[in-house]
Amino acid sequence: MKKGKAYYCFCTEEELSARREAAAQRGETFKYDKHCLHLSSEEVQRRLDAGEPYVIRQNVPESGEASFDDAIYGHIAVDCSDLDDMILIKADGMPTYNFANVIDDHTMGITHVMRGNEYLASTPKYNLLYDAFGWEKPTYIHMTPIMRDASHKLSKRDGDAYFEDYINKGYLKEAIVNYVALLGWNPGDDREFFTMDELIGAFSVDGMSKSPAIFDVNKLTWMNAEYIRRMTPEAFTAQAMPYYEKAGIDTGRTDVLCRILQPRVETFAQIPEIVDFLSKLPDYDAELFTNKKSKTNPDVAREVLDMVIPLLESLPDWEETTVHDALMGLAAEKGLKNGTLLWPVRIALAGKQVTPGGAIEIALLLGREESMKRLRAGREKLA
Predict the structure, then answer these.
(1) Distance between CA 360 and CA 353 in Å, rounded?
(2) Can you give the pLDDT at residue 247?
(3) Which of 22, 196, 298, 308 has an alpha carbon within 20 to 30 A of 5's alpha carbon?
């Protein structure tokens, strides 16, 4: 204020509205006309003593340029005559965001300001404030926005998810970070997968783009699936356990669950729906026993189950090798293709046409008692 870099403004909203309307009638863009800048110090003090409402405005030079260098966009220069005298302190005594932003950055020792490129137009005003205070300006890095499509930014208001939302949807944080890092930045080679240490080593502002990046959920999902495929069985199981519990399934055979699910799921949140048949047998139609490729129909399925049920009942244990050898041995003995025998067994066990894993894996996951119960129910459905 003492340097003349800011000033009191007593203009009322009604007065400003009238000037704004007059400018519109002239076909001009309204800009504050520095009306109160020219008040004498005595007049300002009289109004202050009278308790008149006021704001404090920045006194932007009427000529010359306000400029800065951006790490991505290079040198940016704006004609001061195009800048408005923005309000620094509002009528209620509170600072505006633009003013508080500069104060906060300086007092916190911020050396590099990284923000969206929508603030490019505001930065010259910020630098005038730095000059007015005699403070060192930060290095600016204005980044392109991440867009939902060519015309719309990502917006929570429009239903676009936050980082936490994707975590809750079963995406891996490493996959999300990896994917987002590649939006608006090019590592300079064809690599797509990075650990955090590799991202830190490869990152350079020079690789950042001036063009907006499109957030493609399908690409993120693909990358997440790739991350899942690369997990160790132990890591996969640890990540999947909450989803097994949500599905209400027995986790006694996590080795089998990992084997059938890790190559198939794209996000962990898909697991409960994929394995829902393990907790409760769906109400299915007997027509599911018909499959042209496996050469089965209800009649064939009836014959198969009549052979399979007593065979499995007689097994000494319910281990994978035992169940596998029994079923494959029966198919060979009866001259049946493996699919012809296994299709009816899987349908009876799962009640679904498409399942992760085959009949043997499902039988192991269900256990002997539940498997035999479902096989008998399937046979009754075919009676």
Answers:
(1) 15
(2) 94
(3) 22
Tell me which CATH code domain 286-381 carries.
1.10.10.350
Rounded Cα–Cα distance for residues 36 and 11 (Å): 7
Query: Which of 165, 157, 160 shows the shortest CA–CA distance to 147?
Result: 160
Residue 158: is its pLDDT beyond 70? no
- How is 321-338 classified by DSSP, letter by letter? HHHHHHHHHHHHHHT--H
Q: Cβ distance 158 to 130 under 8 Å?
A: no
Catalytic residue among 156, 219, 280, 337: 156
Fold type of domain 6-143: Rossmann fold (3.40.50)
The verdict on domain 156-229 having CATH code 3.40.1160.10 is no
Mapping DSSP to helix (H, G, I), strand (E, B) and coil, where does residue 238 land? helix
Residue 72 above 80 pLDDT? yes
Residue 147: both structure tokens together: 């867009």
Q: Is 316 helix (H, G, I), strand (E, B) or coil?
A: coil
Please state, rounded to an integer, the average pLDDT across all residues of the chain: 94
Whether 156 is catalytic? yes
